[in-house]
Amino acid sequence: MPLHSALLTVRGVECGFSNKIMNRKIVTLGVAAFSVVGLQAADAGKVWEVTASLRGFYDDNYTTSPEALAQESWGIEVSPGFNLTIGEGTDLEFSAGYAFGMRYYEDRESDNEDYGHELGISLNKAFSDTSLLQLSDSFVIAQEPEILNGGTPLRIEGDNLRNTLSASYRQVLAGNILGELGYGNSIIDYDHPTYSALLDRSHNQVNLDVIYDMEQTEYFVGYKFASTDFDGGELKVPGLDFKSDARDNDSHYGYVGVRHQLNKEFVASAQVGAQYVDYYNFDLMPGLIPEDETSPYVNASMEWGYAEGSQLVAGGSLARGATDLQAADQEISAVYAQFLHKVTAKVHGTLTARYQDAEISGGTERVDGKTESLMLLGASLTYAIADNIWTELAYNYDELDSDVRSAGRDIRSFKRNYVSIGIGTSY
Predict the structure, then answer these.
(1) How far apart are CA 164 and CA 187, in angstroms?
(2) Which of 120, 211, 234, 301 is the most exposed place for a label (fewest CB within 10 A)?
(3) The CATH number of domain 9-426 is 1.10.3470
(4) Residue 264 has what pLDDT?
(5) pLDDT tens digits for 227-263?
């Protein structure tokens, strides 16, 4: 049974602590299983920064199994990292970072150790007052390469990898009219043959938006084309010869939206539209893969710095995504929120929540139309011992409720509690 984990990553905010410790990405949701916790953003004005953390933890269900099969363990986690930032605040900004992670489970029956690597780079280039190019790439090797990429994250043995590339170019066309062209690519590759057959894929997308800019508010209309190629091969299970490329599909999105920035402390955006998916290889598995699907498409978010060192981030989405079940895909609706509050100059607290419902599409009647709900809750308290040293106490609760059954038994639902205490530093 794979381990579950999830992370919610929020844009870095200035939070005090001598503007050193908390000027970094906040990654605090569902850390119940190992993943590299995102690249730390270097402090403003710093060209380079080295970070390191050491945590002890207790996990009461590291196998993410139903209650009767749950296994518990104590353990330790070590994560050093390095960040480089050049040209901050200029027309050419470049940043790069690397993070290594090791998690050791004292009582895990199989392999006691998990390892992970994350490398990230980004480039922003303003050619003039009227044009901007943005590039970024994230490469991850870990037991859980798909952190909150829709569905339930999985802990899988092996060096599983994920690479995500994004690029966008924005240009003033005339007056208040702007155009934005975007491209994205992601590659997922698992070592485990079962999950390779179900989840290995490459995804490409191109979008074109036309924007009407009214200083604090942007209105836009856009179109996006996406193509997903499942290349994990076949999976033979009792009663089913599952062909991964039967799920190959092209998606078409049409949407309208608005972005509003009241000031530097408050930003909100929303877009709504429709998604049409064409499963052009459906005849490889007739009756199990639909010819096409049409569904609503929603994406909304907001960031509010309501006080010095304090911030609320929230949002929601509705879209189709991949599933680790033997089905075509799933329609996922999700809401999330993260609340960061400066209690004192040295103490910060964080509350994080995410809830999502997913309805499975395709496959046998064992999974078609079935639903799964995932709830992730997290709380942490951080204390600044010195300008560049902090300690943290954290608690996470994860719960998956699934309608999928095998021989009448619930094989996927689980509950999980995870507690950690640790210390970190930056230089």
Answers:
(1) 7
(2) 234
(3) no
(4) 85
(5) 999 998 888 877 778 899 999 999 999 999 999 998 8
